[in-house]
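Hi V.,

You were right to ask for the full record rather than a summary. Here it is.
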Amino acid sequence: MHGILGKKLGMTNLFDANGKSVPVTLIETGSCYVLQVKTKETDGYTAIQVGYGEKKPKSVNKPDAARFKKAGVNPLRFVREIRVSDVTPYNVGQKIEGDIFAKGDYIDVVGTSIGKGFQGGVRRWGWKGGPGGHGSMFHRAIGSIQSGARLGRVTKGHHMPGHMGVDRITIQNLEVLDVDKANNLLLIKGSVPGHKNNFVVIKEARKRPKGFVKQKVVLTVTKKKSVKASMKK
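Predicted structure:
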């Protein structure tokens, strides 16, 4: 199991060999840096803490600044933890590129859905609504919310109007159509949760399709310039 962080740039389409239009999501992977390596001996499980997207040092609090300085990287905007089965290929400060995935791989993408504000039950939960005639006087209203005199209360978890969106969504088994290493882009078949410029987590698919052959991934260690040297610029 391995993964990387990225930013959703938007959607486009490609044409396959049969001339069929295929929806494609462009994700900019850029450069991710390992901030911490967690092992079973010290933390009870194996994982890596990864950061992506540089930001201004003045926008970082002191604890985070110390963490970035310890890893030898500039302050990063998006930090997440990714569970991995083996942490031996990873080192603190290591740079991870999008080429850990290859064309034909299947991945899981985790993102935050687009916020839609306060919505009624018809849009939020797909209620059928009342009759459409003018005399019904009941079109998109809530209706009864109690379960009768036997219970005498509103059932816990009952669907009601409220805030919609801004949820953590995972889309599984998305196919990687191409990897553009020169421009740090992943071309993924299908849609990805979130709006444009939304940060996402890209992980190796947990439930791979039948017949899928996993390719061997080789990670290369790339040294990063020191924080002092980059801040001088």
